[in-house]
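Review form for a predicted model. The reviewer records the input and the model, then writes brief findings.
Reviewer: anonymous (R2)
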Amino acid sequence: MGGPPAAEGARTRAARRTGAGFGRLLVAVYAFFALAAGVRAGWQLATRLEEAPVAYLLSALAAAIYLVAAIGLARGGPAARRVAAACCSVELAGVLGVGTASLIWADAFPRATVWSSYGIGYAFVPLVLPVLGLAWLRYTAK
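Model under review:
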């Protein structure tokens, strides 16, 4: 017998929170990528903007998306879930679009972005992360 119904309801709600359980790991990875991509893009924009402005700006955009997704997943309310889902969707479209473009038109990307070649420079985590994020949001939906 699992205990009083109120306790079971609280456990169910806690299990569905986006920032709990596996969600904590997901938030941590998103936050790490926001920091890593943001610092790298900031340095590149400040010191070598003329080399590859599009690539460096795309990396900065990716960092911003990672940060907002991490916050949305950590907060987990209805509005935060929508924001996180939008970020994960834009991120997936970005990594697929930029990944494909960087392979087809390699000359257009003289320097790698976070999403170049589907995130090969980051062990394909940028490709897998939005899929996991969207799957987690769906799994934890009420």
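Findings: The helical segments are 5-15, 22-48, 53-75, 78-104, 125-139.
Further findings: Residues 89 and 130 are 7 Å apart (CA to CA).
Recommendation: see findings above.
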